Target: Cytochrome c oxidase subunit 2
Amino acid sequence: KRILLLLAAFSLLLSACGREDLSVLRPQGPVAQGQLDLMKLAITIMVVVLLVVFAIAAFVLIKFRRKPGQNEIPEQVEGNHKLEIIWTVIPLVLVIILAVPTVQQLSALGKDYTKDENALQVKVTAHQYWWEFSYPDLGVTTAQDLIIPTDKTISFVLESNDVIHSFWVPSLAGKIDTNFDGTLNKFHFSAPNEGVYRGKCAELCGPSHAYMEFKVKAVSQEEFDNWVTAMQAPAVLPEDEQLAEKFKSACLSCHAVGDQGGPLGPNLTGIGGRESIASMLLNEREGQEGAPVEENLKEWLHDPQAIKPGNEMPSPAELGLTTEEVDAIAEYLADYKLDYETNSAD
Ligand code: CUA
Model:
């Protein structure tokens, strides 16, 4: 009964890990697949060892138990070369079976793609509590939604702006730390299937660590090229001139849109088309539950600390913005979408 309860609890735990876009158990790329294969191999070996040891222990307990009327001490045996060799060689063989694919994977993971001309180079900079993605060869910087083509290896160089974070997209690859002392970590993966994969910060980094999510959006090469072109276009500012001035003075001192603004906060180019606002407020779109992007932007802008405690975004009062101005900026940003998705039905 207890074992059944335990099994039920365990399967519940596994099913909680079962979200397709956030699961190491449902790999969507070769790196994650290789790592899952290794886990399966290790678990299989462990289970077999466990079963054999338990079976032998049960057999010994039953076969050599003290029988009624048996009062003399049994024959005492010491040393058995044959047995000792067997129980040394078997673990050795098991360790070799584990070690060979592990070392192979490690060396494949350690391969440097930063000079590979066929790979897409991406620089990841982690901030409390958001992700900056820049494409040095394309002159493009974005935040929170990492857009990548499906048919290329993505080569990452990672660092942090403040404390140690960890970059993790469970369905694409294992995690890697981002350091703030200038040490650059290198990493790579590929995502051959189009789709949106959730990423998480996997290193406790402050009060909003749990809200430090990002998305990886794998698209066709054509869509990726369209996106890059749209990102390289000049900034689209609010049509209303007064609002444009407000937006420039209040927002563009930290944030950038198109070719204008600063690099301190997340780049806002095309923010209206992103998967979520401030990581956790999901935007309504096909196949995804969420609120309209405009509502999410308003919720975020009116009280950023309520969504992500400890973040660097000032409140409207600190920025000198009225409720109406915040609403107008939210509406403008919600409309700031990049038209890059090719519809295969067209
Ligand atoms: Cu960044 Cu946890």
Remarks:
- The pocket of dinuclear copper ion is lined by residues 126, 129, 165, 201, 203-205, 209, 212 (CB under 6 Å).
- The first strand starts at residue 120 and ends at 127.
